[in-house]
C-alpha cells in the first residue's frame, strides 16, 4: 500500500511548500505531475521529480488539461493560492483562493469515482482560517470557504470506493508565502513569546501531505494545522 507508481498531481507544486512535497513524494516513488501558473523557470527546477505542466486552475480548460495529464489519477494536492498581501481585490482573492481550487478538487473527485479509484485529495489552506488576524478578512475568508467546501466534498465522496478529502493548514513557514513575512520580522514575536518553538519547514507540510495520501489511510474530512501550536 505504498505510493510507488501512484499518479499524483501537485497543483501549484512549484512553490516553496509544493517543491518540498514534490521531492518528498518523488522519493517515495510517486509519479508526479507538477503544475505552475507563471514561473516556468522555477518549475523546471523540479523536472527530476516529475512532469512539469503550465495550468492556471481558475480556467476550466486548464483544469481539464491538467487532469488529462494523469489518466490514472490517484491523488491531488492543491497548493495554488494568492498571498493576502498580493491583492486587496475581493473577487480576485476569492477566484484564486477558493473558486479555482474547489472546482479542481471536485472535478478530480468525479474522475476518480468514475474510474473506480479510491483516491485522496489534499487541499492546502492556512492557519488564518482559524486564527483571527486583523486585516486578513479577504484572504482568510476565501480560504475558510475552501476548508468548508472541501469537508463537504469529503462527505459527498465517503463510503465504499471513497475519495478521501483532507485539508492541511500551514502556520508560519520559512517557505512559501510566509517566508517573506518572516524575513521582514513580522512574526518574530511568536518566537520571543514562546508561541512556537521554531519556524515551520517545507518538510513539515510535506510529511502531513504524504500521511493523507497514503493508500491505507483511514481519515477523511479533517483539517490539520501544521503550525507548531500557534493556533493555541
Summary keywords:
232 residues, alpha/beta, Rossmann fold, seven-stranded parallel beta sheet, 7 strands, 41% helix
Protein described:
The protein has 232 residues and is α/β, with parallel strands linked by helices. The protein has a single domain, classed as 3-Layer(aba) Sandwich (Rossmann fold), CATH 3.40.50. Helices cover 41% and strands 16% of the residues. The chain contains eight helices and seven strands. The protein has a seven-stranded parallel β-sheet with strand order 3-2-1-4-5-6-7, sandwiched between helices. Helix 1 crosses helix 8 (202-213), helix 3 packs parallel to helix 4 and helix 4 runs parallel beside helix 5 (137-156). The longest helix has 26 residues, at 90-115. It is globular. The model has no long low-confidence stretch (mean pLDDT 95).
Summary?
With 232 residues, the chain is of the alpha/beta class. 41% of the residues lie in helices and 16% in strands.
Per-chain topology:
Blueprint: E1 7-11, H1 16-27, E2 31-36, H2 40-44, E3 50-54, H3 60-68, E4 73-78, H4 90-115, E5 120-124, H5 137-156, E6 164-170, H6 178-184, H7 188-192, H8 202-213, E7 223-226
Parallel strand pairs: 1-2, 1-4, 2-3, 4-5, 5-6, 6-7
Give the strand tally: 7
At the third CATH level, what is the topology name?
A: Rossmann fold
CATH superfamily membership, which one?
NAD(P)-binding Rossmann-like Domain
The assigned CATH architecture is: 3-Layer(aba) Sandwich
Helix content: 40-55%
- Mean pLDDT, as a whole number? 95
Major sheet attributes: 7 strands, parallel
Strand order of the largest sheet: 3-2-1-4-5-6-7
What share of the residues does DSSP label as strand, in percent? 15-25%
Question: How far do the termini sit from each other?
Answer: 35 Å
